[in-house]
Every structure is written in C-alpha cells, then in structure tokens.
Amino acid sequence: MKLTTTTHVTVDGVMQGLGGRDEDRRGGFERGGWALPLFVADAELTTFINEVYERADAFLFGRRTYEIFAGSWGAMPDPDAEPIAGPLNTRPKYVASATLTDPEWAHTTVLSGDLATAVADLKARAGGELQVHGSGALARWLLANDLVDEINLLTYPVVVGQGTRLFPGTGPDSALDLIGSRAFPNGVTLQVYRPAGRPQYAT
Fold first, then answer.
1. Tens-digit pLDDT profile for residues 144-154
2. Within a domain: 14
3. Are the C-beta atoms of 4 and 123 separated by less than 8 Å?
4. What is the edge-to-edge ordering of all strands in the sheet holding 108-111?
5. Claim: this prediction has a pTM higher than 0.90
6. Do 105 and 70 form a contact (C-beta atoms < 8 A)?
7. CATH of the domain at 179
8. Where are the beta strands (DSSP E) in 27-141?
C-alpha cells in the first residue's frame, strides 16, 4: 500500500484544533475551529475530502487523533450513509500507541512494538492507500523515517497566530516534488508532494 498523509493547515502552518473550539486545547490553544467554516461552505472541497476517504484501504492514526475520530465518526448512528464515516467504521484502522490497550472502535489494531517494522509490513501489503489523517506527531515521525510516499497538504486562507504546527522550528530537512495542485472556491489550496530526499543548498 502507498502511505499518504492528509493534513489541514493554516497559512502559518498550524494544524491544531481545526474542527472545533474544544477539539484540542493543549498548550492553552484558544483558536480552535478555524477550518470548519471554510470547509462546510465549500461543496467542491467537501466532495474532494469525501473522495480521499473513500479510496482508503486502511487508516493509520496517532492516539490523540484516533480518540477524536472514534468519539465523533465512530459514534455516528448511521455511519454507512456518510462518505467519511463509512470507510472509517468499516475499514482496518491501526493506531501507533504504547499506552492504548483496549480500543473499542471496531476493526482497530494497536501498533505498540517496533513501529517502523509494523508500518513497513503494512505498506508491503497489496492495496491502494494506507492513509494518515491529522496525527501530527506521527506524521512528522513517518516523514523523518522515510515512510511517507505522498503528502496531501490543504492550506486554509487564515493565520491563527498560535498552536501546534505541522513542522516544528527544528527538525529534519526534506526536498519535496510537487506532483499536483488545486485551488478550491473558498480559497483553500491543495498541494500534493512526494518526498525527494535531502534538499540542495546553495554554496
């Protein structure tokens, strides 16, 4: 399977608390819910996101994102009628966690051992996409360990000025090949990247 990440960020790179004011208040974050007004008002963007989830063969989460998704998409009364909830509830889900022991969401497997080996084994299986949504710490770790095949970066036309960013102030460097881009009516832009090794620096 191809491992893809899909991340919603602000122009200043923040990915924290996109869905709601109380979704993730770590670090005193008070500006949650910045993505939802733009998302729900843009039918083209909504259709695109639905299509992303529908093409998933399996999902890989960090623990925090998994718990947020399980508490929302996993608790819907009729998930099969929803293009996002349907795949999330019926397809395999893997969680990278050393502390989660008894997940209640159906079709969930906890990866608590050698994560690099476990992810490599998942990628070696036949199929289309092993998708990572959100899960910032996991996404950064996967990128640092050369396990990501494709990055979907959705940038929202807003600066929130605080919060956890997709890429920290210090970390590994990476060159990226742009393999696709798209602009949506409400100003959200999509860049699709493929990791391409180390960047070249001017001498």
1. 999 999 999 99
2. no
3. no
4. 108-111, 93-96, 56-62, 129-133, 2-10, 150-156, 189-195, 176-183
5. yes
6. yes
7. 3.40.430.10
8. 56-62, 93-96, 108-111, 129-133
